[in-house]
Write a structure and sequence with these properties.
The complex is a heterotrimer of chains A (503), B (324) and C (328). Chain A contains 18 helices and 20 strands. In chain A, helix 6 links the parallel strand 7 and strand 8. The longest helix of chain A is centred in the middle third of the chain and has 16 residues. In chain A, helix 4 packs across helix 5, helix 13 packs parallel to helix 15 and helix 15 runs parallel beside helix 16. Chain A has three domains: 240 residues, 3-Layer(aba) Sandwich (Rossmann fold), CATH 3.40.50.300; 154 residues, Rossmann fold (3-Layer(aba) Sandwich), CATH 3.40.50; 77 residues, no CATH class. Chain B has 324 residues and is mainly alpha-helical. A two-stranded antiparallel sheet of chain B has the order 1-2. Chain B has a single domain, classed as ABC transporter involved in vitamin B12 uptake, BtuC (Orthogonal Bundle), CATH 1.10.3470. A two-stranded antiparallel sheet of chain C has the order 1-2. Chain C has 16 helices and two strands. In chain C, 55% of the residues are buried. In chain C, strand 1 and strand 2 form a beta hairpin. The chains are: A alpha/beta (503), B mainly alpha (324), C mainly alpha (328). Chains in contact: A-B, A-C, B-C. At the B-C interface, helix 4, helix 5, helix 9, helix 11 and helix 13 of B face helix 7, helix 14 and helix 16 of C. Chain B: Keywords: Cell inner membrane, Cell membrane, Membrane, Transmembrane, Transmembrane helix, Transport. Chain B: GO terms for molecular function: transmembrane transporter activity. Chain B: Part of the ABC transporter complex LsrABCD involved in autoinducer 2 (AI-2) import. Probably responsible for the translocation of the substrate across the membrane. Chain B: The complex is composed of two ATP-binding proteins (LsrA), two transmembrane proteins (LsrC and LsrD) and a solute-binding protein (LsrB).
């Protein structure tokens, strides 16, 4: 057995108020795929960022080929041969494939100019390793490529740096079935070339297909380590480590589900086709699918941000056609955006201001900021208290709060408007495990009080556990529907357009 | 995917540094000219600072909403030149010219806001374009050589004093205008829905829009208030400066400098009207000191440029330290 | 998941942005021809006249080439107008009519430009001051220093140096050829050097550039130096053209705003990372054609200023209006 190329030992890292990692040890050998699994917030990303030098560990050490290394900048780890492929691509959409591949280390001619011919040739050579090579012209602008091809370029970039360790962070999030297979082939190629691969995922199928070894992180600690890929159940148990029934709120009983609050028939726009959808009062409907399947587009169409262009929408028995978020809100829809920082919060304002934002938006501009037709300071504070938001004071800037508390403040924003339909997009993204249950129970409480809830999530266990019914989207259509209790596999098949037999 | 933002926040110093700066400057002025503590001293100071302070209070709205308004200087010029053309030495004309000028300020602000919101031109370019256009209009209107007079009725606001006031002996009308306008703008900014929403759209326009804020309406209102403040500043300046085609030039940068000195955050999200008033007073105090030191006019420009850069650099430094 | 993440990526095919400068240029040319014909002034359509039109925009063109660099790295420079005045005055004062002083004057002007650019770059990338404010502040400082020393035409440019503005090589003015050469050089730098590649990377995605090991601060600083040196060359040209330097020639020409407008019309995006020098040249041509149209049509000079302001905003709007992004 070969020696590990990377060995991380006793890695501990705290952020103010949160211990992200404590005493994590982790290693990967040349020519193996080591799956790193764990729920959101388990510490996977933090571990990788320490490996690549984005963060520095508080304690513990990183060894590469047996020697202690201490990267303080991602460039250093890259030079040492560690390439990280993040979920957000670091490609420049306006530059060509070749320019991206050799960004920052362009080959030069004798005169110090960029040697475009060599760059192009080298690009072809690197791309030849991949099945997609034929499709990729080194002179094409990256922005013109589809997501899967961009991903190949991103991986090729890692390979072209001569990386001995490649980290892939949920690389299949945006890929369809065929593209996934292509990616798996690429990973096999890398493995055969002796590259050590750290593969972050929470999809069991990929672990079974690719991994040689598995490490499970939970709450910042190694929960389990498998030298051979075990049965999926064992991994899930190690990942969640508690009784699932408690974690998610119980599903709705038939009596709790009422009349439809939302009915959509044959609706569509440039991104959506023939959408038929019902959401009933008291019901949580989960919306699953791969990235780009149109889940967020559907939410934004309902919310009037990118409106439907045809079809019928009925909200609480009335035909509606919302053209702006404002009209949708007045009609009784609320939406919790998926990216809290960039779409949800006004970070420099206080917790209370964030909670009162929507109610103020519908009151006259010149009237007092202390009370309006929907709520007032005292009632907002009571609501924030009721949701057990932990803050030094509600006058405190919201950016200092934890993700879970921030999310609750956004929920508070909607509660004062008494919406009939609430759309949650990635409700627990970036929220620590302990606060997740709180959000699930909050959603269930809202449903019990008579709201219809549409939940969009990329976290399959979450969709399965928290929703009463799961709709699966694919290429802008609703492709399948499952009752409570569907399996991850059923949903993945529907989401990636694979019908019939499993792979 | 850990939360790195749960830090119990270090309390920011409660006192805005601009007040410390202002105090130091005022002490320095008193040291150099003890008569400053008499009403003639500080009332004249406030009178001179009034146009800038009003302008800065308007500018804070635009800066807090995430933009810049560089058209205010030329708007002042247009107000002064236009008033002199329209009143044409007729004292009774003042009563319709002043409302008309205020309406023009609101109108120019509205155009700025509409261009930014609907043509999606960044406010910097939009208001610079407006600046060129308004300067051209001022020339065009006056034929390049404005008449040098405004009737006394018009100059009342900028020039007159109210005498026999207890305690302070006299109050310039412009100081009363200053107190009323800045007071109103401060109330609007810090006690109403408008102010909260100006903060919200400057902080994160996408989040504000998804939360239902009428982003365009709020933004246009902010530009209109800035335009209105420029019109008021122009009316005051017309009272104590003469009529010329460069009476307002440079005021846009002074207003931005004053707002930034008051801690307004460039590109939006944070801003305070009282602190902008403090910034305007501090800037005027610096100019007064330079005057005492016998330094010529151009030095003022250099100092102002340095202050502008230093104030922003200081703010950025503090933001990095407090981890914003 | 953000909204952007979930929407399908841009498809290949016709890209409006790539052709917009040419479309605009064609439009401006058509208007020019039509106005010349309608007003019965066909003499404006000769080759000589076209050269003359170009000759009027040389200072703007040189400045805009520099401005292209800073806008490509997602910065901006509003101090070019003051710098143009300062270098014009400096050069003309140093020369003071003596041909022997031409070289020192040129060097002094370039050195001043380099110093201003370096300072701008350091303040923007080191102190993290918003580039608008940093360069506006710099503009105030330069203008203040300048007016402390001169208030009217100062110095004198010797006849030999007037060649720069008035000399001709065959049918072409020397200055026009110089502008062409400068544009080719700028294009070559952006296209063939590592620095050029780094500019696009820093402007396109600063974090990705830093992760790729590019020293982003250095790229920003160097771009500012290039921009300021271009502005000082434009100042030298204007001194040569006016035979003397005056402290108002930069601000009178509104070179700060116009150079930005020219760059934007040429398809370089204000957010950085996309565009190039040839677009800027097309933008310059569009501006000079519009100016000529005003002249042919006999528009009053103050009215021209009003129209200019509107055209600049309209030009930026032409590109911006299609984006869904909220601007402030």
């Amino acid at each position: 057995m070969t020696d590990p190329v990377i060995e991380m030992q006793g890695i501990t890292k705290s952020f103010p108020g949160v211990r992200a990692l404590s005493g994590v040890s982790f290693g990967v050998r040349p020519g193996e795929v080591q799956a790193l699994v764990g729920e959101n917030g388990a510490g996977k990303s933090t571990l990788i960022k320490i490996l690549s030098g984005v963060y520095q560990a508080d304690a513990g050490e990183v060894r590469m080929n047996g020697e202690a290394v201490h990267f303080v900048h991602p460039v250093e780890s890259l030079r040492a041969g560690i390439a990280v492929i993040y979920q957000e691509f670091s490609l420049l959409p306006e530059r060509t494939v070749a320019q991206n591949l050799f960004l920052g280390r362009e080959p030069r001619t004798r005169f110090g100019l960029i040697d475009s011919a060599k760059m192009r040739a080298d690009t072809r050579e690197v791309l030849a390793l991949f099945a997609a090579a034929g499709r990729i012209d080194p002179d094409r602008t990256v922005g013109e490529l589809d997501v899967a091809t961009q991903q190949v370029v991103e991986i090729a970039k890692a390979v072209s740096t001569g990386a001995r360790v490649v980290v892939m962070d949920e690389p299949t999030a945006a890929l369809n079935e065929a593209e996934c297979e292509e990616l798996f082939a690429t990973v096999d190629t890398l493995r055969a070339r002796g590259v050590a691969i750290i593969y972050i995922t929470h999809r069991m199928r990929e672990i079974t297909r690719l991994a040689d070894r598995v490490t499970v992180l939970k709450d910042g600690e190694v929960a389990a380590r498998f030298d051979e890929v075990p049965a999926p159940d064992a991994i899930v148990r190690a990942m969640v480590g508690r009784d699932i029934a408690d974690f998610y709120a119980p599903p709705a009983t038939p009596e709790e589900i009422g009349d439809p609050v939302l009915t959509v028939r044959g609706a569509g726009n440039a991104m959506l086709h023939q959408i038929d959808l019902d959401v009933r009062a008291g019901e949580i409907v989960g919306l699953a699918g791969i990235q780009g399947a149109g889940r967020v587009a559907l939410a934004m169409a309902l919310f009037g941000e990118t409106p439907f262009e045809h079809g019928q929408v009925t909200l609480n028995g009335e035909r509606v056609s919302f053209q702006t978020p404002r009209s949708a809100i007045l009609g009784g829809i609320g939406l919790l955006p998926g990216d809290r920082k960039s779409e949800g919060l006004v970070l420099m304002q206080s917790v209370r201001d964030n909670g009162m934002l929507t109610s103020r938006a519908f009151a006259p501009l010149w009237s007092s900021d202390r009370r309006n037709a929907f709520t007032d300071r005292a009632r907002m504070d009571a609501l924030l208290d009721h949701m057990e938001i932990r803050a030094a004071s509600y006058d405190q800037d919201i950016r200092a709060l934890s993700g879970g508390n921030q999310q609750k403040a956004i929920v508070a924003r909607w509660l004062s408007m008494r919406p009939k339909l609430l759309i949650f997009i990635e409700p627990t993204r970036g929220i620590d495990v302990n606060s997740k249950a709180g959000i699930y129970h909050l959603m269930r409480d809202l449903a019990r009080e008579g709201a219809g809830i549409l939940m969009i999530s990329s976290d399959l266990p979450e969709v399965i556990g928290a929703a009463d019914r799961v709709l699966v989207m694919q290429e802008g259509r609703i492709a399948a529907e499952f009752p409570h209790g569907a399996t991850e596999q059923d949903i993945m098949h529907a989401a990636t357009g694979e019908t019939g037999v499993a792979a | 995917m850990s939360d790195s933002a749960t830090a119990p926040k270090r309390r920011l110093p409660q006192i805005n540094p601009v007040w410390v700066l202002l105090t130091v400057l005022v002490v320095a002025i008193i040291f150099m000219n003890p008569r400053f503590i008499e009403p003639t001293g500080y009332m004249n100071f406030l009178k001179r600072a009034a146009p800038l302070a009003i302008l800065a209070a308007g500018q804070v709205y635009v800066i807090t909403s995430g933009g810049f308004d560089l058209s205010v200087g030329s708007l002042i010029t247009l107000v002064v030149v236009g008033s002199s053309m329209l009143t044409n030495n007729d004292p009774t004309a003042t009563y319709w010219v002043i409302p008309l000028m205020l309406a023009m300020g609101l109108g120019v602000g509205a155009v700025n806001g509409l261009v930014v919101c609907f043509l999606r031109v960044p406010s910097l370019i939009a208001t610079l374009g407006m600046m060129i256009t308004l300067n051209g209009l001022a020339f065009l209107w006056s034929g390049g050589a404005p008449r040098g007079y405004l009737p006394d009725t018009f100059r009342f606001f900028g020039r007159e004093l109210i005498r026999d006031v207890p305690l302070v002996r006299f109050i310039p009308v412009s100081v009363i205008v200053l107190v009323v306008v800045v007071g109103l703008l401060a109330w609007l900014m810090h006690r109403t829905n408008l102010g909260r929403q100006v903060h919200a759209i400057g902080d994160n326009p996408v989040a504000a829009r998804l939360a239902g804020v009428a982003v365009n309406r709020v933004r246009i209102t902010a530009f209109m208030l800035s335009g209105l403040s420029a019109a008021i500043a122009g009316i005051l300046l017309g009272g104590f400066a003469g009529v010329s085609t460069d009476v307002g030039s440079g005021y846009e940068l002074q207003a931005i400098t004053a707002a930034v000195l008051g801690g307004a955050q460039l590109l939006g999200g944070r801003g305070s009207v009282p602190a902008a008033l403090g910034g305007a007073l501090a800037l005027t105090a610096i100019f007064t000191l330079l005057n005492f030191l016998g330094l010529p006019q151009p030095v003022r420009q250099v100092v102002q440029g340095l202050i502008l850069i230093a104030a922003v650099a200081f703010a950025m430094h503090r933001r990095r330290q407090t981890g914003t | 998941m953000s909204i952007a993440e979930d929407t399908p990526r841009r498809k290949a095919g016709f890209r409006f942005e790539r052709w917009a400068p040419l479309i605009l240029l064609g439009g401006a040319l058509a208007i020019y021809v039509v106005v010349a014909l309608v007003t019965g002034q066909a003499q404006y359509l000769t080759f000589d006249n076209l050269i003359a039109i170009l000759g009027r925009s040389i200072a703007l063109g040189i400045t805009a080439i520099g401005q292209t660099f800073v806008i490509l790295v997602a910065s901006i420079d509003l101090s070019v107008a003051s710098l143009i005045s300062a270098t014009a005055v400096l050069a003309s004062v140093v020369m003071d009519g003596s041909p022997a002083m031409i070289l020192p004057a040129i060097l002094a002007a370039i050195a001043l430009g380099g110093l201003v650019g370096l300072t701008n770059g350091l303040v923007v990338s080191g102190l993290k001051v918003n580039p608008l404010i940093a360069t506006l502040g710099m503009s105030l400082i330069i203008q203040g220093c300048l007016s402390a020393f001169v208030s009217n035409f100062a110095g004198e440019v010797p006849a030999a140096f007037q060649m720069f503005a008035y000399g001709e090589l065959g049918p072409f003015p020397v200055a026009l050829l110089f502008l062409g050469l400068l544009a080719v050089m700028a294009w070559a730098v952006l296209r063939f050097t590592k620095f050029g590649s780094d500019i696009y990377a820093v402007g396109g995605n600063e974090e990705a550039a830093r992760f790729a090991g590019i020293k982003t601060g250095r790229v920003v600083i160097l771009s500012h130096v290039i921009c300021s040196i271009c502005a000082s060359i434009a100042g030298l040209y204007l001194a040569s053209r006016l035979r003397s330097g005056a402290p108002w020639i930069g601000s009178d020409g509104v070179y700060d705003l116009e150079s930005i407008a020219v760059v934007v019309i040429g398809g370089t995006v204000l957010a950085g990372g996309r565009g190039g020098v040839w677009g800027t040249m097309a933008g310059m041509l569009i501006f000079s054609l519009i100016d000529s149209v005003f002249n042919i049509a006999g528009v009053d000079s103050f009215a021209k200023q009003v129209l200019r302001g509107i055209i600049i905003v309209a030009a930026v709007a032409f590109y911006a209006i299609r984006s869904k992004r909220i601007v402030a």
